[in-house]
Amino acid sequence: MAVPGVGLLTRLHLCAQRSTRVQRPILRLLSCPGTVAEDLRRDEQPSGSVETGFEDKIPRKRFSEMQNERREQAQRTVLIRCPEKISENKFLKYLSQHGPINNHFFYESFGLYAVVEFCRKESVGSLQNGTRTPSMAMETAIPFRSRFLSLKLKNQTSEQSCIQSSDQLPPSNRKLCELLCYAESIDDQLNTLLKEFQLTEENTKLRYLTCSLIEDIAAAYFPDCVVRPFGSSVNTFGKLGCDLDMFLDLDETRNLSTHKTSGNFLTEFQVKNVPSERIATQKILSVIGECLDHFGPGCVGVQKILNARCPLVRFSHQASGFQCDLTTNNRIALTSSELLYIYGTLDSRVRALVFGIRCWARAHSLTSSIPGAWITNFSLTMMVIFFLQRRSPPILPTLDSLKTLADAEDKCIIEGNNCTFVRDLNRIKPSGNTETLELLLKEFFEYFGNFAFNKNSINIRQGREQNKPDSSPLYIQNPFETALNISKNVSQSQLQKFVDLAQESAWVLQQKDTDRLSVSNNQPWGLAAILLPTVPNRRSFTKKKRKRSANESVRNLLESLKSNRTANFTETNEKRTVSTQT
Ligand code: GTP
Ligand code: MG
Fold first, then answer.
1. From ligand 1's centre to the CA of 447, what distance in Å?
2. Cβ of residue 53 lying under 6 Å from some atom of ligand 1
């Protein structure tokens, strides 16, 4: 446990630690009425707006629709490194020579950057045609034509800085503590946390743009490839600062020939063969990794992690500030993201609860950005979904019931695994459950503080506990590869820490009446209190727990003495028997 008093500020910092330095943009929208872009902009929602849920009554987009629209937007967009002093009006006027701009924003990440989305894709080509490769005095530039540009001022002194970038970092720990303490209820606290930590519209745009820029590089080898974001960047559970998981989709390249057959002949590409899919994946990622390393503007620290269970290329995209993991042949993970997107969009309580639990877990070092024996955010999300399926009436449907709602178009088999479920959110019946977030948070901790992890597994496909098929401390069934456990890595001690903290947090939340009085004393209460490593009133829980454990220890000792006596007795008898026999 951390030092009391360092508390929330230190711990919450962990939540925000990997936050991007993206700043709140000055979103001056120079819209182009009547364009597809304008239509998209009108009805687009941030991948995580607080207002998602049944309450919306707005038809909600399918995951694939949302991905395609954002990808198309990103293809019309450029990333520009700007001089520190720049006039926004002149900047826009200069770029508008190439065509109307749909929207733009500025952010800071070790320098000032602009994301500029044109109304038409041709404008990007026109801008690129008027762009040159820099000439350097000491070094040599490798010529590479991309959509990541630098804007230079011809006359350094003539510009005044007119860019008013407002901050888009998550709030400071102090600010967050204040926001949570002055919230009116725990529901309010959870919604505040969600609002402050969720990906902003601009951050989401930047994620799609980064994928699009990487796609351009990979297209040098595979012209029909698509680089799709997956994981928390798109599944509605992304926190500012989360990594950017990318999937290099080569299906178009693979399937092209099947559409072009006619007559009695069949043409196939002459290709090189390798013994397995895994080796093919490793070879593809190896060349893309090299390419990113040598030619990828802004791609630094490229690591090829090809012997992992799921081979990947990891790198930092300096300009966006994203830590990127590029994989291929990982379609099931994309499908998992789609499933989580559905769960996160169905009911507004889901995301608020997941964010609260993720922040809580991070604050207590239950999760970590370093791989190890910890619980992952993905596993935590599965636990929340499972818990919400177990409510009465259920807040979320089981995966099996989503499968029964599927139509022919939703049918999907990946590597022999049935990944069929309904993709159209509007066909899923709303839940009649009206429980508050406060109750759900408390009950989540109660539920998992007392869960029989030693014998039961968690299974969102059926939404019920099942006998564990093996002795892993924590068993969460992979929803699609049903023979796998997504939390196989979690050690008994990490699980125990989770259980202990869940019990403790349930207890702290039960003290709400006295706790709320502490608002006047400036003491954290409710959600803020459980994000703390230790608060004074929690000592009584620890004392009680210690007393309970002392009682338990005495009881265990007595039991073990009793059983030892029996064992000794049996042993003695056996010895006797043995000795008699001998
Ligand atoms: P963050 O911690 O915010 O990055 O959450 P995340 O959901 O993006 O997790 P992560 O980056 O670790 O993994 C990206 C995606 O890969 C997840 O959303 C899942 O779809 C998938 N994934 C991660 N871990 C596992 C696992 O153990 N098993 C399976 N089948 N898929 C996983
Ligand atoms: Mg991720």
1. 24
2. no
The CATH number of whichever domain residue 480 belongs to comes to 1.10.1410.10
User: Over the stretch 513-526, which tens digit does the pLDDT of each residue have?
Assistant: 545 655 556 678 99
Please indicate whether residue 354, judged by its CB atom, sits closer than 6 Å to ligand 1: no
Give the rounded percent of residues in the chain with a pLDDT score beyond 70: 76
pLDDT digits (tens, 9 = 90+) for 289-319: 999 999 999 999 999 999 998 999 999 999 9
Range of the domain at 184: 170-192+347-396+431-513+523-533
Q: Check residue 516 and give its pLDDT.
A: 60
Mean of the per-residue pLDDT values for the chain? 82
Q: What is the Å distance from ligand 2's center to 379 Cα?
A: 12
Is the domain of 381 the same as that of 493? Answer: yes
Those residues whose C-beta lies under 8 Å from the C-beta of residue 340, and which sit 6 or more positions away, are 235, 236, 237, 381, 385
* Distance between Cα 565 and ligand 2 center (Å): 54
Q: Is residue 125 domain-resident? A: yes
Asked whether residue 385 falls in the same domain as residue 453, the answer is yes
More confident residue, 168 or 556: 168
Residues 392 and 501 in one domain: yes
User: Average of pLDDT values for 256-273?
Assistant: 76
The answer to whether residues 71 and 186 belong to one domain is no
Q: How confident is the model at residue 170 (pLDDT cuts 50, 70, 90)?
A: confident
From residue 298, give the alpha-carbon distance in Å to each of 111, 220, 291, 320, 326: 13, 17, 12, 9, 15
Does residue 553 carry a pLDDT above 60?
A: no
| 113 φ/ψ angles, rounded to the nearest 5 degrees | -125, 150
Q: Is the separation of the CB atoms in 299 and 146 below 8 Å?
A: no
Residue 378 CA to ligand 1 center (angstroms) comes to: 5
Distances from the Cα of 496 to the Cαs of 355, 360, 366, 454, 466, in angstroms? 22, 16, 10, 11, 20
Distances (CA, A) of 164 to 19, 26, 85, 105: 21, 7, 11, 11
CB atoms within 10 A of CB 322: 26
DSSP state letters, 489-507? T--HHHHHHHHHHHHHHHH
Phi/psi class of residue 85: alpha, beta or left (left: φ > 0; alpha: ψ in -120 to 50)? Answer: beta
Domains contained in the chain, number:
2
Q: Is 221 left (phi over 0), alpha (psi -120 to 50) or beta?
A: alpha
Q: Is the pLDDT of residue 146 over 50?
A: yes
Question: For ligand 1, atom 15, which residue shows the shortest CA distance?
Answer: 231
pLDDT digits (tens, 9 = 90+) for 211-226: 999 999 999 999 999 9
